[in-house]
Amino acid sequence: MDTYERLTAEQMDEQRIQNVAYQYLCRLEEAKRWMEACLGEELPAPTELEEALRNGVILAKLGHRFAPSTVPQKKIYDPEQLRYQAVGLQFRHTDNINHWRNAMTALGLPAIFHPETTDVYDKKNMPRAVYCIHALSLYLYRLGLAPQIHDLYGKVKFTEEEINNMKLELDKYGIQMPAFNKIGGILANELSVDEAAVHAAVVAINEAVDQGDVGVTAVALRNPAALLTDLQEALMSVYQEILQRARRRKAERAAVAEDKDMYEEYLTQREIQDHISAVNVRAAVEQVDEALDVANELALLSALQLPCLALRGLRTDNGPWYLDQLTADRQQKAQNQGSVDPLEHEELQEGVTAANQEAQMVAALQSVNAALRGNDPRRTVSCLMTSDLQLPEVFPFAATFYHRELQLLQRQTAQGELQEEELFVAVEMLSAVVLINQGLEAGHLQQFSSSLVSSSAGYFETLAGVKQQVGRDLLTWNQLQEGIAAVNGSAQDEQQQLLAVSLINKAVMSGDPQRLISALLLPSCGVDEVSPANACKYLTLLSQARQIKAQVTVSRDPGAELWLADIQEAVRMANQQSQRALKCESQIHLPAQVTTPVQFLSMWVRNDQRLDRHRLCLMIFVIIATHLRRFVSDGGRL
């Protein structure tokens, strides 16, 4: 039994429609990938691309990419699509579509391919917009302005749901699918007379290159219709070799393609011009290299002026500077790479720019030295402010100061000329001095402290006093330095004193009298009238003071430290107590047999003496102290 079942007309029509939907999805994917390559950004999937094109932002960006003068970036409405995401399509989005259409007109794409604004914005005929993108890609590719769009039919897969959805969308609008495969032929028919002539000339060049005859290739290249520039007769054989090599590479890449366009194998006009320009540049850099080899300034200038190099800022009067700079660059390149390759075009441009800057700097430096030999401070400041010297900021109101100080420095040099490094350091220093003086005069501590990079070192008060002494004149660098040195010395003394106070606090915490005395006797401590004999009293009073301070602090910090004033007060009180005790001891004469407090009290009771409580306590303290001294002197024996 024959298992082959013939499809009905309806089934065949359904299959055809599904195939059309698949083909269109492929065209969308092709357009998506091509635009991504041109714009350098990721675009929505082909099933979402139609909707993404409706606001015209992607299309306007495409117009800006290839016709920036027609579609400046600032003309694109809602470029980040924030408005579109918030409230959807706005009528102003149609401006983007019109910008794209204007760009295609400026580029010369035949109007037969252009869609209407409503085809995109209202989605009346979106396949026509995609068709136009395909035509634009082929047109720009033939001009050498854009990458090639690739045929993805049969190479990408879509789900049955995606194909069915696209089929329903096409049915909904009843759109006739454009003939994408006929774009190349339509483009050829729509070319203007001039464009057709260029096309014919380019084809002739490709065919001549294939023949391998330099003479035939030269004739084809010279054809004015080819619009090629900067052809050099001496390089025709090189053009032939380079173009033939490029032509073969392109043909090999296109060999696997089916239904390929002519320009997938042939070199475009832009590609031919690019190869010619590359050959010219290579020949020019070799000519520069030969001039550097023989140190010929005139030959070097002649080579640098070749149109193909198009070096910016070239000045014929800077020939010696170019020779020195490029020779040094060439030697440096040889050392770094271990080769003798010529300087590349970019390296030549960098060398020319550097030589120009050096020449301008030397000329500006000569102007400064000349001004310093004169008597016009304003001219000196004007010369200092030129951008060629790249000096630190100069303040015109201090013109006399700059002129006087730099003049003195110039006279001290052996050659009577300030060099670049000397001038830079001097101006940097003098400008700092000017700012400091300005801060002192105005009394602005903030400006002053920012000039010295320290707002807490006490410089301001010291130098303000010096400024008052000298009157209206600006303080010199030496005067500033002396004042700063004095403040620095004072600050160092304070730092050492703080260290000594810290040692005293640590000794108090350890409860070690000897360690405390060692700290109190440090010269940097600054505590007056310290007596080693009172070490225990010092320790007692300082410990008490530390405890009191810990209690009165807001945080009740047990680690609260004593300050220098606290320490000095405790030492003073301990010394006073010792002095009072010694005075009382000298006034009280006890009998020899009274050696203990008990004996004293017994004697007091027997004699019924009337002593006030304070005097009694003091006497008892003296007796105890006397007893302790005897105990210690006897070696601790009772």
UniProtKB/TrEMBL annotation:
This protein's UniProt keywords: Coiled coil
InterPro entries: CH_dom, CH_dom_sf
Source species, domain of life: Eukaryota
Claim: Coiled coil is one of the keywords in the record: yes
Positions of the Calponin-homology (CH) domain: 25-140
Record-linked Pfam families: CH
One function term, GO molecular function aspect: actin filament binding
Protein name, UniProt field: IQ motif containing GTPase activating protein 3
Organism: Pundamilia nyererei
